[in-house]
Model the fold of this input.
Amino acid sequence: MSYSSFYARFYSILENIKQSFSAIFRLTASRIYLALMVFWQVLAWLQAWFIYRSLSTELVILHYNINFGIDLVADRAQIYLYPLLGLVVSLVNLIILASLRKDNNFKIFVHYFLGAANVFGAFLCIALLSVYLINFR
Done:
């Protein structure tokens, strides 16, 4: 494979990625969803940072079950896995949505995928709130 062929393919791939994401950002609904996704991500990272900073021990209770009590205890740095998981879900949904830009139902897919990412982010913030309540109340 010659250098120019490789460069042409690489440039073509970059151009397709650019067109895919510009198709997503062109819609007003997707901009609203993306703003909400950023809000949920920032809130989740702030909650995790606050929990990490407020802990006086090296362990954090990550899950409490009514029937069995505490069933998940971990190192306090693992509190950052919750917002990281939310970031991964958001990015995967964006990548899947970008790959579906040529579909006839693209506008519906925008609502499905970005709406699901926002619901996941909201539940993630609720989960972090429960981790805070378990550890400090």
In short: The helical segments are 3-26, 28-54, 81-99, 106-136. The CA atoms of residues 93 and 113 lie 6 Å apart. Residues 3-136 form one domain.
